[in-house]
Amino acid sequence: MADLKYLLDTSTCIEILRGNKRIRQHCVENNQYCCISIITAIELLYGTYRAPEKYREQELSKAKMLIDYYDVIGIDDIADAFCREKVRLELSGQIVEDFDLLIGITARENNLTVITHNTKHFSHIENLKYGDWLV
User: Fold this and answer.
1) What is the pLDDT of residues 103-126, one digit of tens each?
2) In angstroms, rounded to a whole number, what is the distance separating the alpha carbons of residues 76 and 15?
3) What is the pLDDT of residues 57-110, one digit of tens each?
4) Interatomic CA distance for residues 122 and 10, integer angstroms
5) What is the count of structural domains for the chain?
């Protein structure tokens, strides 16, 4: 994992699946430096299972190819950091959804930059590097 720099958030992966040329170009240029969280893999699969039945298999195939393409980073070693940050956010009156917080803490604890179109969701996480390849 020494070469990894970017953790692609679910919103970025969805743009890849939709064929967004700007995102795809960034991903091609930074291919060897990108990975996803197991949480993103879960969110992508969940979304495809919610797709209308006539599109489900096609969408599932695309999501699985994307998941297989990138290294998937687990959440095994982030429990303490996650809980400390969740309490800090709660005490400051800021709420970040658990899945976004898990993705953010995974990135922070692995010294990665989250690439997301939902920068507002990640801006409250202390010491997290994030960017948006859509802007």
Assistant:
1) 999 999 999 999 999 999 899 999
2) 27
3) 999 999 999 999 999 999 999 999 999 999 999 999 998 999 999 999 999 999
4) 12
5) 1
Q: For residues 93 and 125, is the Cβ–Cβ distance under 8 A?
A: no
**C-alpha to C-alpha distance for 9 and 101, rounded to whole angstroms:** 11
Question: pTM value?
Answer: 0.93
Contact 108, 122 (CB under 8 A): no
Cβ 85 vs Cβ 49: under 8 Å: no
CATH number of residue 50's parent domain: 3.40.50.1010
**Is the Cβ–Cβ distance between 55 and 66 less than 8 Å?**
no
Is 59:48 a contact under the CB 8 Å cutoff? yes
Q: For residue 1, is it within any domain?
A: no
Q: Which residues contact 114 (CB under 8 A, 6 or more apart)?
A: 6, 7, 9, 103, 104, 107, 122, 128, 129, 130, 131
Structure token digits, residue 60: 């599932």
